[in-house]
Amino acid sequence: MDTPPFSFDFPYDSRRLPIFARNVVATSQHLAATAGLRMLAKGGTAADAAIATAIALTVVEPTMNGIGGDAFCILWDGSRLVGLNASGRAPALMTRDRYAGLDKMPGEGWGAVSVPGCVSLWVELHRKYGTLPFADLFEPAIRYARDGFRVSWMVAQQWQRAIARLKDQPGWAAAFIPKGRAPLPGELWRFPAQAETLRQIAESGGEAFYRGALAQKMERCAVDGGGALRAADLAAHQADWVDPIGLAYHGTSLHEIPPNGQGIAACMALGILENFELSGFAPDGPEVAHLRIEAMKLAFADVHRHVADPRHMEVTSAQLLDKAYLKSRARLINPRKAGRFEPGTIPRLSGTVYLGAADEGGMMVSLIQSNYAGFGSGVVVPETGIALQNRAAGFSLQPGHPNEVAPGKRPFHTIIPGFVTKDGRPLATFGLMGGGMQPQGHMQVLSRIVDFGQNPQAAIDAPRWRVHESGDLWLEPHMPAATAGALQAMGHTVVMTQAPSFEFGSSQIIWRYPDGGPYLGASESRRDGAAVGF
């Protein structure tokens, strides 16, 4: 049997080891992973497993995603790589004038709600690649919502943290803190209204959500609350099949969903990093960390200026990924000093859950869905369990910016499923949750595997850094002290965080053996993640 190109050393403190199986599901919550595995055991495809897992996650991890969220996926269908963009668009009434007097988009309430898209991903992915009856995929989630499940420690912490931000938003307290507090770890949580909503979606093939009774309830709630969402916006929504973008890094390619998502930032950062020789340094040393950080900062400078709904972008993905351009950006990096970077001149050439599923037939699915900031906008449609995302917060209010809010436009998106190939063959489903941390995590983890031969579990257990929105450099507490000190001396404003921290994301990887044999499943220990298989 061919062996993968990495070692099985585990140099970091971790509670997990990878699994090996012919059918694997890996995600951030074990009950959801088990739901997907049940579909594989029934003879379903990886797509069936991914959908069942995603649906279950809306119940068992409502702090990070929900029925009213958005979603994307990248899938190897056995012969080629395809992408699905199910992010929603701004409602027809969401004009710039609605935000007069504001300097940025709101993060809570109806002003932050765009059309929810994740239900359309479940429907469309099943239509093209599912084999089990659509309603079967809902059975575990409906049972968890109707009969209850025991809330995990990590989800309980996230739930408690959301109260101060969302307790006054329409419908949120009644739905999620009916006892006036968050559920405790191990407490039984039931949500019959969500079970009923999932039943209606299952039996109608999604029509109830976009064109039926649930759409009408969302419109009534929006009208009562002054929101822009209408049933016509829901009926007009569609998920779009897209060609993933990608960049080869030392012979291994990282693929991402094209804009309106930020996945291109991970590819750009790797394209910049490729211009430096890392092999002579330690994987956890300051020299490597500094180069990765600077490459990421350069990528973000361009992404935050240029990336938006592709119909409104002034440059293309191909221009941003041009290797000559990325090489020119690499020249701006001082290997011994932190820099401050502005967007480049582009050559004119032509709060989230992640899951992976792979089956023994060769299908591999990388899927991510999110309400964005934890529970999202805080708006919950009464008696439905539909917690609506706050993805419109990703729009800009800067006049003339490609990402300026406008009707029918998709906002800049943070959630990004990744996929890895080599020589045109699938290698891995790959993702990392956590807002602006996601492309940073993609780049760090893949660089560790490719540049230093670390196995996927070790690569996701390793200490991570985050270029924070404030401009500071946040480090995990298990980052070596010598590395932290050296980065500070280079001019980075270092902030050492406390454990456990949700700021560095959580990752899952399913790696395919080169001979097409069993998969390796690796799951993050920073959250309640699980990789399961048979």
Can you summarize this structure?
This protein has 534 residues and is of the alpha+beta class.
Would you mind describing this structure in some detail?
With 534 residues, this protein is an alpha+beta fold. It contains 17 helices and 21 strands. The longest helix has 21 residues, at 286-306.
Describe the secondary structure blueprint for this structure.
Blueprint: E1 19-21, E2 24-27, H1 30-41, H2 46-60, E3 70-76, E4 81-85, H3 118-129, H4 139-147, E5 149-150, H5 153-166, H6 172-176, E6 188-189, H7 192-204, H8 207-210, H9 213-225, H10 231-236, E7 240-242, E8 245-249, E9 252-256, H11 263-273, H12 286-306, H13 317-320, H14 323-330, E10 353-358, E11 364-370, E12 380-381, E13 386-387, E14 418-422, E15 425-432, H15 437-452, H16 456-461, E16 465-467, E17 473-475, H17 481-489, E18 494-496, E19 507-512, E20 519-523, E21 530-533
Parallel strand pairs: 17-18
Antiparallel strand pairs: 1-20, 2-10, 2-21, 3-4, 3-11, 4-7, 5-6, 8-9, 9-14, 10-11, 12-13, 14-15, 15-19, 16-17, 19-20
Helix pairs in contact: 1-2, 2-3, 2-4, 4-7, 11-12, 11-14, 11-15, 12-17
What are its keywords?
534 residues, alpha+beta, seven-stranded antiparallel β-sheet, 33% helix, 17% strand
Helix content class: 25-40%
Global Rg: 22 Å
Kindly report the average pLDDT value. Answer: 94
Task: Please mark out the parts with pLDDT under 50 across 5 or more consecutive residues, or reply none.
Answer: none
Please state how the strands of the largest beta sheet are arranged side by side.
1-20-19-15-14-9-8
How much β-strand is present in the residues? Answer: 15-25%
**Approximate shape:** globular
Count of alpha/pi helices: 17
Structural class: alpha+beta
Number of strands: 21
Largest sheet: 7 strands, antiparallel
